[in-house]
């Protein structure tokens, strides 16, 4: 990928009702980074569910059926393969949703994770979501993926 490192977040998560250990066979990402992504999403989703997540004006409407997420190693593997092949188009990911962020130079995943998560998540507050929760503004694409499309029903 030249001088760039891609950070790709796919639907690494599945709905979970019990704590699970990661047990992924991928040395490219540590359990610390996995925890960073997962904890960030669950905290942000909890704030949406409670109706305390900031919107451009006020707060987002409370969510119904906003479940706690757990990590999915198979989806992590797909994302890792995608990044290793320098994928620039997310269209080949089937039913998974994803966001991409490119960084120049060498950045470690544990440094990139909080930066990209905040970048994607903050779109909701920057652009603002309508009260009907219809995401018809393309500027909300990354926010929609982070907040809604990371759920794969079992």
UniProtKB/TrEMBL annotation:
UniProt cross-references to CDD domains, sorted A to Z: CAP_euk
Signal peptide as annotated in the record: 1-18
Coiled coil: none
Pfam families linked: CAP
SUPFAM superfamilies, A to Z: PR-1-like (SSF55797)
InterPro entries tied to this protein: CAP_dom (IPR014044), CAP_sf (IPR035940)
Record's keyword terms, sorted: Signal
Name of the protein this chain belongs to: SCP-like protein
